[in-house]
Design brief:
Elements: H1 4-12, H2 25-34, H3 41-53, H4 58-62, H5 68-85
Helix pairs in contact: 1-3, 3-5
Length: 101
């Protein structure tokens, strides 16, 4: 997958200034996945798998404020939520999360 970094940037940009990115998973997925032009659920999961398999520091690559461990933890949780939703279609609408209203 040659565009995996673009998918990861789309997921991590909204958490650049979050104190605890894990608390923003639902909001980020709602924001990012509501724009169906960005990609399908499967494309995002594949991009996350590429990112997690990389040996580079994801904190340095995609965030100025979060460590590699925080970024990897965030991506693991995003992938878990996306995988539990199933299917290969785009993810419209709000996803259930502890930070959803």
């Amino acid at each position: 997958m040659h565009r995996w970094q673009d998918y990861i940037r789309a997921l991590t940009y909204p958490i650049l200034f979050e104190a605890n990115p894990l608390e923003a998973v639902g909001r980020v997925l709602t924001t990012v996945m509501d724009d169906q032009r960005l990609g399908t659920r499967d494309e995002f999961v594949e991009a996350i798998d590429h990112a997690l398999a990389s040996r580079g520091d994801l904190g340095k690559r995609f965030s100025e404020n979060h460590s590699d461990a925080v970024m990897r933890g965030f991506l693991v949780e995003v992938a878990r939520v996306l995988r539990t939703r199933g299917g290969s279609d785009s993810v419209p609408g709000a996803l259930n999360s502890k930070d959803s209203p």
